[in-house]
Amino acid sequence: MLPNSGTTAAAIAWMITLAVFVDVAISKEAPNRPNIIVIVADDLGYGDTSVYDGWVVTPQLERLAAEGLRFTDFHSNSSVCSPTRAGFLTGRYQQRVGIVDVVARHLDTPGLNPQELTIPRLLKQGGYQTALFGKWHLGTEQQYNPIHHGFDHFRGYLDGYIDYHVHRNIWMNGLVKQDQPGYSTHLITRNAVQFIERNTSDPFFLLVAHEAVHLPFQTPADTPENRKPIPKSEQWSRERIRPKYKIMLEEMDKGIGEIIDAVVRGGMANRTLIFFFSDNGAIGAGSNKPFRGGKFSHYEGGHCVPAIAWWPGVIKAGSTTDELTMAMDLLPTFMELVNIDMPARRRLDGISIRQLLLRGDRLPERQVFFGYEPKLGTAMRDGKWKMITKKDKVEMYDLSQDISERNNLVDQFPQRAITMKMAIEEWKSDVA
């Protein structure tokens, strides 16, 4: 399994339970159903935060981990934004909903089908208030607006990224364009805190989808009037970007603390699950140590990301798990936690990790896949083994001995290579 690194014991509890579109059934024996808050960072690397021995001190994430469960082998569904969000919200491989690449106007997939079963839709039918503040990136046209996917409230933007300070004609309030002056990270936090303060009685699902630390690399001080022209030679300079990246991450971390404080202040800590993760690995100034690769890569640095679960009195404080977990596991987990039954006809690819969160139980062995055809090919995890295929090129690594994926073992273990290659082809056929 992956190395158990970290300055403090931390854990992100993926306690998100989802249900199905029409046939939502709530168990009469269900306990008080928890609030569920999911905080998603954008392009944050495994080696960025101090929780994972990174280079930026993040005291609020350390607090979250010290009071919760830290994951060392948690994976986004993809090494880019849109597919991960599709997989997380549906509990299925993103290929099943037709989103393999980033959703952009020039690509074939315009957005997530509004009829798709999603976490907010299922929880809303189960009596939850639902809200999204921040980034959507699952369709820029109004027909794909989060409001049409089960969110009661949406303040943020539909695109993949925007200027952190200038939101005119971009920032949405539900289905209406309505600007909010300010710095994106601060606005997302403020909207989330206000929502929490308004919903201290009835259960809610809140998705806090940060823009940070995605480009453009802008700090609160980088307002339009303070900006200077950047020479092309310096636009991607680590010397220029890295100090800004650090401040951007620190501002997001402060906001996470504000969200935790709002939950505690409202007397909801023992009935609120907070799950934090990044949508993929870092690019540019970020760090994916100890892994190889980053965003747009099938190596572990592209999709093995920081993740922490927090639920005081329910999740063991200061615990760590090296179980192989995925973003698509959150939907079945949330559904089981809130006792919403999924119809048998609805096929999920994720599995519930409820018992891992609540008791530290081991998960069943399984194979998981990362498809990004045709650009990157397909990757597969099978326990400690990892395979990456693209056309005729095949790579296979033993991650327990080679976490940086440097020693290709295809020739040394030909039978295993054949077996894994066949599994990849079967999976590609199944999700096509």
Account of the 3D structure:
The chain has 432 residues and is an alpha/beta fold. The chain folds into two domains: 25-364, Alkaline Phosphatase, subunit A (3-Layer(aba) Sandwich); 368-432, Arylsulfatase, C-terminal domain, CATH 3.30.1120.10. It has nine helices and 18 strands. The strands form five sheets. It has an eight-stranded mixed sheet, with helices on both faces. A four-stranded antiparallel sheet has the order 15-16-17-18, covered by helices on one side. The model is unreliable at 1-31 (pLDDT under 50).
Question: Keyphrases for this structure?
Answer:
432 residues; alpha/beta; Alkaline Phosphatase, subunit A; Arylsulfatase, C-terminal domain; 2 domains; eight-stranded mixed beta sheet; four-stranded antiparallel beta sheet; 9 helices; 18 strands
Shape: globular
As a percent range, the share of helical residues equals: 10-25%
**CATH architectural label of the largest domain:** 3-Layer(aba) Sandwich
The share of residues in extended strands comes to 15-25%
**Distinct helical segment count:** 9
Distance between the termini: 30 Å
Q: What letter string, H or E per element, gives the SSE order? A: EEHEEHHEEEEHEHEHEEEHEHEEEEH
Q: Please summarize the sheet with the most strands.
A: 8 strands, mixed
What's the CATH H-level superfamily name of the largest domain? Alkaline Phosphatase, subunit A
Structural class: alpha/beta
Strand order of the largest sheet: 8-7-6-5-9-2-10-11
Low-confidence stretches: 1-31
